[in-house]
Amino acid sequence: MRHFLPSSSKPSWPIRYLTPYRYHCSSPTLTPEPENPQIVPSDSQGSKNPEFSSKIQILSNLNENWKKPISENPGLSQTHVVESLLSHRNDPAAAFKYFQWAEGQRGFLRGVSDPYCVLLHILVSSPNEYSLTRRLLNSYVSSDSSPSGILLFDHLISCSERFDFPLNSEVFNYLLNSYVRACRNRDAIDCFHAMVSCNIMPNVTVVSITLSALVRRKLISEARKMYDDIVGRGINHDCAAVHVIMRACLKEGNMVEAEKCFSEAKARGLVLDAAVYSTAVHVACHKLDTDDASELLKEMKRKGWIPSEGTYTNVVCAYVKQRNMVEALRIKDEMIGSGHSLSLVVATSLMKGYNLQGQFIAALDLFNDIVARGLNPNKVTYAVLIEGCCRYGNMEKASELYTMMKFAGIRPTVYTVNSLIRGFLKAGLLDEAIKQFDEAVDAGIANVFTYNSLMSCFCKGGKVNDARIIWDKMVNNSIEPSAVSYNNMILGNCRQGNMEAALSLLSKMLEKNLKANVYTYTILIDGYFRKGEKDQALRMFDQMAASGVPINDFTYNTIINGLCKAGSTSEAKSFLNKLMHTGYTPLVMAYNSIIDGYEKEGAINSALAAYAEMCESGISPNVVTYTCLINGYCKSNQIDLALKLSTEMRTKGVAWDITVYSALIDGFCKRRDMESARELFDELFEVGLYPNVVVYNSMISGFRNINNMEAALALHKRMCNEGIPCDVDIYTTLIDGLLKDGKLLLASDLYTEMLAKDIVPDAVTYFVLVHGLCNKGQVENARRILNDMYGMNMTPNVLIYNTLIAGYFKEGNLQEAFRLHDEMLERGLAPDDTTFDILVTGKYKGGNFPLRVSSG
């Protein structure tokens, strides 16, 4: 950009600009158009004035010359045209007429030339000719012959200095506006900077138009620089310019600059209108600064403005995002009180807010309300409600809304379909999910997320073959599997122990230029641990580290948990110690795995040491931590220590969960302290928890151990009434107790009930039956149990044979006793010392099969 100096130190212009103009007559005369009467000065004396007659003669001679061909008319030069124009600088209309004629004769005057610039200066001296000046500049700038750059600006400046024209800002404003209209953005920017360099200030309207055009043409950075220059130089501008820049910052997502622009304009005392305030509210809402947004709303109302529906909508949506439904509803009421109606956008946002707060019924009520008001829900409204239904497991209502949406002619979006599929899967309605999936595929709207949802479900459930069918369908429909798709299939194969297939998928994933992430490697590490291949798991971890994949808590916890489950808790603890030496801060989950590992290995002191270390490190134990320790104490019959820990839990505000109650109840039951167990059992209901099958198993076993079968059967009945399914352990415990109590008929009924529920007896159940029947002299019935085992393709163990052999010896049926001995040998069972003791002495000292009293 060239810089123009004050008139006291003018630049060196080309020689042709410095040549002094000489007039061809004593008084400058405007040459007339040939077809029109000559334009001469008016004189009331007419021919009586000799000077006037002389002028007429001169003009007549000139006219004769102009009637000659152009090539023979040496007087029509740029210099002559400029002289003629200057002679009528006070008559812009006549000057323009002459310029038109001269341009038609010579064709060199328009554009970057002295005559053209002189004409513009003459025209702009008269407000009546402003529109003509604007048209001339628009025509020039938009023509193909107009050169790039701001040569015309330079020439206008030059002419103003050489011909003593004042610097009228209007001609430069029109020039700048012409560049903007012609989409000559670079020239417009250069023209603006040239103007301000010459202290020619653009007017307010042109400033706003220029900024708006630059923003509209995505030259936001240039617009912001220009605005900063305008503000810095104190150039007059109005709120329209502020509004343009604020909207530009919004487009760029630069909320800080938008807010700064507003606050600075306000501080300068610039008069701002409702549109600027509305944009400021939008900015505040985008930042979720609802306090500022509400204050701006109040200020708008104090100024007598009624905020627009869009402004209110922004504030409502911002409060919803903050999950502040109280204020969102208040602003909604204020909007309606201001004369606006409840819009679909506001209603949909409020429905989403209700869903986020778990107020699903309120969302449905609002939906019914807007339908009653005559509003037609759109696809977003239905999507929000269906998503809420799916989130809270109301799949019946979700399906109903989905049907309503289709009936209204709204084509389902993939977002809604995916919500339904996830909802059906979460509710365990696999068939419905598959039906919805097939419908989405047939409609051509299924995307990779649609396929991934079903594949994830199948892989987590161990149905890899079903997942592979979905995979193949996805590929056949030209949908590229994502990293999540590969992770799902890798997980499925790892769960099945097929690590070779999992590694093959990893290779294919990398070939597709998909990055294996932390979840990919962690799934593989977990797969090796599940398969019992600890060394392979650790090698995969090393490979992960070598690949540069960031390792997170998920991975570390998987390794620590895997080592503990593999019986290598001490190694897990060493691994954690090494991590902590590098500055790593473990989560409570890592310590929980170690404490649980030590507890399962019977090293309760090591578990306590890990617990103490965790507390010293500032890591607060959670319910799982306490449960592991309490469970360990209870199993080692240290119920007092378990109770001490449970009291500590409550002191620290850690609520007991069902697992804590279960461990304590089981501990009391094993001590045959059924009164304390019953107190805890009743307390469960008081705190809003419900006993599960593990708790019932402990209680029933406890009452069996103290021969209180009436209480045990009552609990069994309660389980059935509450819909809690009984497992094989509970039936075995009840049958054992009833047989010991001599209630063979009831025991038989329970056995029949168990089989009717397709609960398969195990070796413990069969031993209980055989042992109980033999003890009650029902050896033949016990023998039939043996036949049931054969029918179930189960081989009786030595303990069961010993019990039957002893039973027959007791009845004196030695032949059957020895036959059973031979049968044992035929089935490949080796008799033990107890067998020979029975056969030799005829006595059975009574072996005990280790009954399970708890499935926990």
Automatic annotation (TrEMBL):
Pfam families: PPR, PPR_1, PPR_2, PPR_long. The keyword Repeat applies. InterPro entries: PPR_rpt (IPR002885), PROP1-like_PPR_dom (IPR033443), TPR-like_helical_dom_sf (IPR011990). This is PROP1-like PPR domain-containing protein. Residues 215-343 form the PROP1-like PPR domain. Residues 39-51 have a biased composition (Polar residues). The keyword Repeat applies. Belongs to the PPR family. P subfamily. Residues 29-51 are annotated as: Disordered. PPR repeats lie at residues 168-202, 238-272, 273-307, 308-342, 343-377, 378-412, 413-443, 447-481, 482-516, 517-551, 552-586, 587-621, 622-656, 657-691, 692-726, 727-761, 762-796, 797-831. Keywords: Repeat. It comes from Coffea canephora. It comes from the Eukaryota. GO terms for molecular function: mRNA binding.
